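Q: Hi! First time doing this. I have a protein sequence and I read that you can turn it into a structure. Is that right? Here it is:
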Amino acid sequence: MQMLGPSLRFVGLMGVLLATALAACGSAPEEQSGGDAYRNEATPMPLDEWTTGELNLDGGDMTDWKSIDVESAGKLVVELKADKEGAVVLVGVYDKHGLAIGNGTRKAGSDGVTVPVKATYGGRYFVKIVHKDGDKTAYSVRAVMGDGGGGGDVVPDL
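A: Yes, that's right. Below is the predicted 3D structure, encoded as structure tokens:
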């Protein structure tokens, strides 16, 4: 039986240490997501209505996907507001093929983010909401057609 050289033992030891460190860092990014972590599991979101959700970067729920069905082409506006002042949340809008058509970031300390995009067809679009930094946060999101966005309506109290 052949003995491993010092460099191979070092590589093996580093692999064990890396695996231990990753396990100690907490949950896998989507371990606790609840079924909406991927585009094919997107939760339907009605137009013109606020929908609520929760993100927890350190707790294994960093991504939520929503789907929106629009009747015809036009301006689609997605708005997001997060409860925790320090939460940084990325909002992306995608077409039916999963191609990004717009995005924005709700920065720490801001009220929210508005992402206007051109809907080039009637049909399904997707919204990806990603917790990038900060404490666990609840959020409210809605999509409207035309210029109906802008935050004039009351956001539900979470």
